[in-house]
Amino acid sequence: TAKFTSASDIPVAFVEKNVKLRGKLHHITEKGLEVEHIPISVPFITSIQRKWQSKGLLLVRLAGVKLAPGGMAWLQQELKPKQMIWFQLLGREDSALECLVLVNKRQFLSVCLNEEILRQGLGRTARIEGLHHDSRLYWKLHKRLLRAELKALKKNKGIWREESYSERLRDSISNNKFVQTLKQFVNWLRGS
């Protein structure tokens, strides 16, 4: 029922047990998502606790994901301010939390943002900070993230998109020195 306002407030046991917490999204920054923790509410106790709760935002990073430039724009488009999200604690580094972030899309459907970004080709798989390499959970999550990245690669999406043959041909012709010189000559003739 306690409200966490900084990463250091969260007990070590919560991080070790990979507890899921609920929060309200406030901002999307280069460092990560700024989220207000929403504690479990117990009718009478919650109303009393609100008077003494301090204000503060948790910095939540997408564990195992290195965002590409288009990833930030996609997040800002997909997530709305004050949207409720769930974040599963995987690790804590300085003042940031490494998490799996879940967003409800419909009544019974939630999407893992970490996987969805990789599935869209808007990031690359990275080391999951906070989890030990020899842990079963690390390899289970890493495998899920790699599968999502592979889907983007197979579908030619995002950073994995390759130019088609016609696009490559057009680029090579327009970048040809002779064609550029010819264009300059035609422009000179038009100007005269």
**Domain count:** 1
Global structural class? alpha+beta
Evaluate the radius of gyration.
23 Å
Total of helices:
7
The CATH topology corresponds to OB fold (Dihydrolipoamide Acetyltransferase, E2P)
- Mean pLDDT equals 85
CATH class assignment: Mainly Beta
Shape: elongated
Query: Roughly what fraction of the amino acids lie in strands?
Result: 15-25%
From the N-terminal CA to the C-terminal CA, the straight-line distance is 79 Å
Biggest sheet statistics: 5 strands, mixed, barrel
- The low-pLDDT segments are none
The counted number of beta strands is: 8
The CATH architecture classification is Beta Barrel
What's the layout of helices and strands?
Elements (H helix, E strand, L loop, with lengths): L11 H5 L3 E9 L4 E5 L5 H7 L8 E5 L2 E3 L1 H10 L5 E10 L2 E9 L5 E3 H7 L3 E3 L10 H19 L10 H10 L2 H15 L1
Parallel strand pairs: 3-6
Antiparallel strand pairs: 1-2, 1-5, 2-3, 4-8, 5-6, 6-7
Helix pairs in contact: 4-5
Verbal overview:
The chain is of the alpha+beta class and 192 residues long. The protein is 38% helix and 24% strand. It has a single domain (7-157), classed as OB fold (Dihydrolipoamide Acetyltransferase, E2P) (Beta Barrel). Helix 4 runs parallel beside helix 5. It is elongated, with a radius of gyration of 23 Å. It starts with 11 loop residues before the first helix and ends with a helix.
